[in-house]
Amino acid sequence: MKTDIKKLVSEMTLEEKAGLCSGLDFWHTKPVERLGIPAVMMSDGPHGLRKQEVGGDHLGMGESIKATCFPAACATASSFDEELLTRLGDALGRQCQAKDLAVLLGPGANIKRSPLCGRNFEYISEDPYLAGKLAAAWIRGLQSRHVGASLKHFACNNQEFSRMGCSSEVDERTLREIYLTPFEIAVKEGKPATVMCAYNKINGTFCSENKWLLSDILRNQWGFEGAVVTDWGAAADRVRGIQAGEDLEMPDSGGENDALIVKAVREGKLDEKLVDRAVENILKFVFAYTENRTSDEPYDLEKYHALAVEMETECAVLLENNGVLPLKSGQRVVYIGAYAQAPRYQGSGSSRVNAARVSSALETAGKKGRDVTYVQGFPGEGDELSEEELQRAVDAAKDADAAVIFAGLPDSFESEGFDREHMRLPDCQNRLIEAVTAVQPNTAVVLHNGASVECPWADKTAAILEMYLGGEGVGEAADALLWGEANPSGHLAETFPMKLEDNPSYLNFGGDGKKVRYAEGIYVGYRYYDKKKMPVRWAFGHGLSYTEFTYSNLRTDRESFGDGGRLTVSVDVTNVGAMAGREAVQLYVSDLTGTPNRPVKELKGFKKVHLEPGETKTVTLELDDRSLSYYDPDLHDWYAPGGEYAVLIGHASNDIRLETRVRFTTRKLLPFTVTSATTVGELLADPRTKPVVGAFLAERLARRGHTDLGTSSGADEKSRNDMMYAMPLKSMVSFHVLTHDGMVEFMGRLNEAVQKG
Ligand code: BGC
User: Fold this and answer.
1) How buried is residue 507: exposed, middle or buried, by Cβ count under 10 Å (0-12/13-18/19+)?
2) Mutate to test the pocket of ligand 1, among 350, 352, 353, 418 (most ligand atoms within 8 A of CB)
3) Quick one: pLDDT at residue 179?
4) pLDDT tens, 536-572?
5) pTM exceeds 0.90, yes or no
6) Has residue 30 got a pLDDT over 50?
7) Which of 310, 314, 311, 307 is nearest to 488 (CA)?
8) What are phi and psi of 651, to 5 degrees?
9) DSSP state, 626?
10) Catalytic residues
11) β-bridge partners, 148
12) Domains in the chain, please, with CATH?
């Protein structure tokens, strides 16, 4: 950076500094003309530019410039392709340069806790590793064009209901393993210029004034060096916010909060150095952009439209197919459903883009001369079905060789600002799908939705193609995939449960408006369904292709590794079908050490590969000790128990193709303080106390004339052993095994053994 930011800050008055800590208007930072500090503009985000040239609103209702609407995160996540996300970020960065935007407000890395969250379409995944890796890839692409990202909404903004005040009640292990991990990976690997703190509270404290979140974790533990920006209107107590690590308030409070900052400094209640720090953080992203401005970047919306089509083609997920897809030329096909003509391609709210040009599948089929007729069947908005339209759809389907129903969620069913009321499609669509499949066995359903939906008719359809909210090119992408000009290669970044009630957050989602309990803990998404052995409609990672892939030769570069070590995992993937295609190789890890309360398996690596028919490629992925770890709140750190782990290679989380085993050794020891409530079992489980307590038990048994605890039957023995393991030291006094003084002395010896390590 050419500008000496520290020097600039030292030349500013306190009023100028406090002023710079809030927006000039809805979208700009403040300038300080006297010192040559320019104002820069921010804009939503994340899948296109919502640049408002006049006025501003955070609801996506006012005018914004024509821009490319790329596929939303629900779709791009399904690519399982870091390279695609980087290319998307790069394209957005170029567009920002062309339109003079210094920061694009995205990506959204919040976990999809429930299918009901109204904003799931903007979020990436139910899996923290996938969400973090893809967010980081997008940030790298965007920032390669010197445009700052704003990683949002930090953190635990997993519902829209009462989002501006509700407290997400989450235990620390769950926070670290599930809700913070995507942000951690994105911060460490993507180095975003800004992080946007969420509206909500976590365990009672607003994110915007949460020092533990914004300073201890974000800055000190993860090394974040950028600016913390409030979500629009998320600032609470501004002085406490600055103290906690919040930098820029957006949009502004008409100067009121700036005045409070000045007053607090003057009264000695706020250290001016903290204000300086906030200003420095803000100026870093201001100058990172202005010093690297490329004012001649072309804004070629036609070229970007083609890119939007190409990307969506790689994101759509083929969920079912009995061979009806791809459709064959010469087939007479009827397209049914309003989304064939006017697709639902983006969600509502702050991310809504004024799309440059939206293509529909129907229009594309017409251009390509396909034998396609159209019946509307059901409307794109609402849940009304006329009997005449239903009959027309059924008759047309009967007459055709195949039917394709373009179904999905209307705008009014999912949006920023409110959560979904249920997980169903409109009833009218379900009814029509049932009626058409009853007369036409070759019926495919194409879905347009921002989150998982219940599909009670799934077994009756011949094929299901999930387009998600696929951006302005969704129609052309659907056409290419339906007619076999492209091969589907998306995989689900979220589970589709059979029904909403199966979802682990079902009993607690939403909360009472004041608090929402994350009672399911770490068992989010497939971590829950796997553990419960619960059937799901489609599992996390699922996705079909028009070709077939086989896996072979899974190997690791070593059989065991330890703290700080790495393991290289390689596997060969072959395209054994007749069409070129892309496969998302997924690597899961399973803890076999016997440690309680761990998921059956967790995603720890993935890679998308392109394979021509007959081609084999070797995919290499890396694991480290963090890949095996859980977060231990007593240790205040990640901990991988020593022992055996399974390394699994899958085509989906429920379709594991190959497995190998590795051993992990650790020198880390968990904190342990022996008290009178510590049980014999706990003492025997810890390597430091095991010898001491073992010797003690042997001596007691010998004194009573026994050599072991066994008596007449196996059941007696098990019950006696189990009771013994569960016995706290204090009860030994009640059972006259130890005197009180003896227990105190014994505890001392045990704690000494712990100290020695
Ligand atoms: C949303 C953010 C968005 C901001 C600015 C807020 O309501 O939560 O995601 O970036 O508005 O439009």
Assistant:
1) exposed
2) 350
3) 99
4) 999 999 999 999 999 999 999 999 999 999 999 999 9
5) yes
6) yes
7) 314
8) -95, -20
9) G
10) 231
11) 103
12) 301-532 (3.40.50.1700), 549-665 (2.60.40.10), 680-756 (no CATH)
